[in-house]
Design brief:
The complex is a heterodimer. Chain A is an alpha+beta fold. Chain A contains 18 helices and nine strands. Chain B has one domain: Rossmann fold (3-Layer(aba) Sandwich). The chains are: A alpha+beta, B alpha/beta.
Chain lengths: 580, 122
């Protein structure tokens, strides 16, 4: 219900209440009578409106408004019904008199059907039918009894009409009392979480249905079965029943808003569960939010083809019984999870739906996170495999160059050298052969340089320590070497460490204008740690192509490479590479 | 004859050219071996003055043969030979206990005779 509709309805209720009291000729009565009437009517409408605005999907609020208007419309009859006094508006008040008690039917209906649209149990639906039939018969009996006021003539024998009115009155009060008992039974049947949710509405409904019991006295005294109600009891009983009536809308409003509070607790649960809680953590939060300590979350495991508990054990869904119910949470057309909960939660479909929504959100999110992690893991492994395959290929090419081209070039150089030695009688030929030897050896040197760039043989032959020493020996800038390396063998991590050191030293020589470099390498905890520190100009660009490529290579192996300014000038490059 | 030499290398072409160069320089090549096992047999049988030992052998590293050969022929000069420069082996050449190292490229440059003379005189 929109706010504007609520305002219009409230204005109608105020005007209707005042008109009703005017018709009732309020000036002829003690002030507390109309005030009590107005208070009950306006409370019913007001609480109904608040509930409708706060919980637009819950029909109980609108039904409460209807009960309020029925109360207001039926109000003018009471004075005459009670006193037999006649005055103005006789015909109108006689008509409204026939509507006595219909608001009670609506309130009983609210209690029997809360928190759904209609009663869930067959017996409760039958009860509503009985109430409507009994109240309709009473209205008919009252119309018959008020023939002179409404139609100007008796429709039936007045004595018969009086008996009919008394009997239907007894039926009305008894039917209401039975409804009250059913409401109490409904309250007893639901378990803890259900009682928390339904308690206020059911108890208010039961009180409203049972309160008129006292007035059985009137029809029985009218029938002459018992003595008339003593004068001194009429006023206190009026106060007691009207006090209960005034509490009914307040209780119902509290119940409806409590539902809303429960749902906001579910919203809080969403906020508190974090990005990917375990099923047991989710169950704990939901159990608290839905007030069902027995609640369990079973998640669907596609690989097992079954629901599994928080320890991953396949768990069949429990058969639904009077206390337990399983609600399946689906995502698209596939199962995601099952909430095993107290059946009473089903009494509040919207609350259960909120719990289901949270579960769907969390389980789906957890599944997506897991899949994402798996994919990331696969990508990471694949990236490492690509680097390793690249390294293996580089080693193979280096070996092929060494064993193939270089060996043949060396054989050629040796053959030329041998021929030169044997051609002592021909100086020109000897010179040509000498030049050929020099040329062949030049090509050998080129091939070695090429092979060294592809994969330094020293890594395979002598390890990282020897390779770093060799780098340091060849560096034009003096290198202070500190090595704590032990039996690393040849691997992609070792190759990456070597290339990092090689690139860093080359950068120092090219760009840093440094006086000295310190190179520290160690392997601890299955990691190679490398620090290259120079005292040069600083400003090494981490995004430079050489370092960028090495950072990628190191990252592909699960390591990290950082480049920082050194305090006091210079650059510190640090790399940590896991040894696979 | 300046001395007797055993050439250990798996490349026949290299053995042939090395033999020619060594013999031209006045050395007497008394045996050739293509594998480590053959090298040990030949060394024990021929007791050469100089063993010319390739590192990259098909049945193992020449680096691991220096000590057994030295045990068989304690007076022999053992020279390691490789197609790679010495720096590629780090400390391993020195650790192997050989008397010298010859890069095959330097062999072609005619520096072998000088090296062997120096080693023999030491």
């Amino acid at each position: 219900m929109s706010r504007w509709t609520a305002i219009v309805v409230a204005a109608l209720a105020i005007a209707g209440g005042l008109a009703s009291e005017y018709v009732r000729q309020v000036w002829l009565q003690p002030l507390w009578v109309p005030l009590t009437d107005l208070a009950i009517g306006w409370l019913l409408v007001g609480c109904g409106l608040v509930a409708s605005v706060a919980r637009p999907n819950q029909p109980a609020g609108r039904r409460l408004v209807l009960a309020g208007f029925l109360w207001i419309v039926a109000a003018p009859r009471q004075f005459f019904a009670d006193t037999g006094q006649t005055a103005d508006f006789l015909q109108l008040t006689a008509v409204t008199f026939t509507l006595i008690g219909w608001s009670d039917v609506v309130i009983a209906f609210i209690a029997l059907s809360f928190a759904g649209r209609s009663p869930a149990r067959r017996r409760d639906r039958v009860m509503v039918g009985v109430l409507v039939a009994v109240f309709a018969s009473q209205t008919v009996a009252r119309i018959l009894g008020r023939g002179p006021e409404i139609f100007g003539t008796d429709l039936v024998d007045p004595d018969l009409a009086a008996v009919l009115v008394a009997l239907t009155d007894i039926a009305r009060i008894c039917a209401l009392a039975v409804a009250g008992v059913l409401i109490v039974l409904r309250w007893l049947a639901v378990t803890r979480p259900g009682r928390h949710l339904l308690g206020p509405v059911l108890l208010a409904g039961a009180a409203s249905a049972l309160a008129p019991l006292y007035s059985l006295w009137y029809p029985f005294s009218q029938l002459g079965v018992i003595a008339p109600v003593p004068e001194n009891l009429a006023v206190p009983s009026f106060w007691v029943t009207n006090a209960i009536r005034a509490l009914v809308p307040i209780g119902m409003l509290a119940g409806i808003l409590r539902q809303r509070a429960s749902r906001s607790a579910v919203a809080d649960a969403i906020a508190s569960v974090g990005p990917a809680p375990s099923p047991s953590a989710l169950a704990e939060v939901l159990a608290q939010a839905l007030r069902d300590p027995s609640l369990r979350v079973l998640t669907w495991d596609e690989s097992v083809g079954a629901y599994v508990d928080e320890k991953g054990r396949a768990t069949p869904l429990p058969a639904s019984d009077a206390n337990i119910q399983a609600t399946i949470v689906t995502g698209g057309d596939r199962p995601l999870a099952a909430l095993v909960h107290d059946r009473a939660l089903g009494e509040d479909p919207a609350l259960l739906a909120a719990g289901v929504a949270v579960t769907r959100l969390v389980v789906d999110n957890t599944r997506l996170s897991r899949e994402l992690r798996q994919q990331l893991d696969e990508v990471r492994q694949s990236r490492a495999r690509i680097v390793e395959a690249g390294d293996a290929e580089r080693r193979r090419i280096e070996r092929d160059l060494h064993d193939g081209v270089q060996q043949r070039l060396l054989a050629l150089a040796l053959a030329l050298r041998g021929a030169e030695g044997r051609s002592t009688g021909d100086p020109e030929a000897a010179e040509a052969l000498r030049l050929g030897t020099v040329e062949a050896l030049g090509v050998v040197e080129d091939v070695r340089e090429l092979a060294q760039g592809i994969h330094p043989a020293v890594l395979s032959e002598a390890g990282l320590g020897a390779a770093l020493r060799s780098l340091a020996d060849r560096s034009p800038v003096p290198v202070d070497l500190s090595l704590e390396l032990d039996g690393l063998g040849s691997s992609s991590a070792v190759a990456a460490a070597y290339f990092v050191a090689s690139e860093a030293l080359a950068n120092v020589v090219k760009h840093a204008a440094a006086g000295s470099v310190r190179l520290v390498a160690s392997d601890h905890d299955a990691r190679i740690k490398l620090v290259i520190e120079d005292d040069g100009a600083g400003g090494a660009a981490p995004a430079g192509a050489g370092l960028r490529g090495l950072a990628d290579r190191v990252a592909a192996l699960g390591g990290a490479l950082t480049v920082d300014e050194r305090p006091g000038g210079g650059t510190i490059l640090a790399a940590t590479i896991p040894i696979e | 004859m300046l001395g007797s030499v055993l050439i250990v290398d798996d490349h026949p072409g290299f053995r042939r050219e090395a033999r020619a160069i060594l013999e031209a320089d006045g050395f007497g090549v008394i045996g050739e071996a293509a594998k480590g096992t053959e090298a040990l047999q030949q060394a024990a049988r021929l007791r050469p003055d100089v063993v010319f030992l390739d590192i990259g052998l098909p049945d193992g590293s020449g680096l691991d043969l220096v000590a057994p050969i030295r045990a068989l022929v304690p007076a022999a000069v053992v020279v390691l030979v490789s197609g790679r420069p010495e720096r590629d082996y780090g400390e391993r050449v020195a650790d192997a206990g050989a008397d010298g190292f010859v890069d095959k490229a330097t062999l072609a440059q005619g520096m072998l005779a000088d090296l062997l003379d120096r080693l023999r005189n030491e």
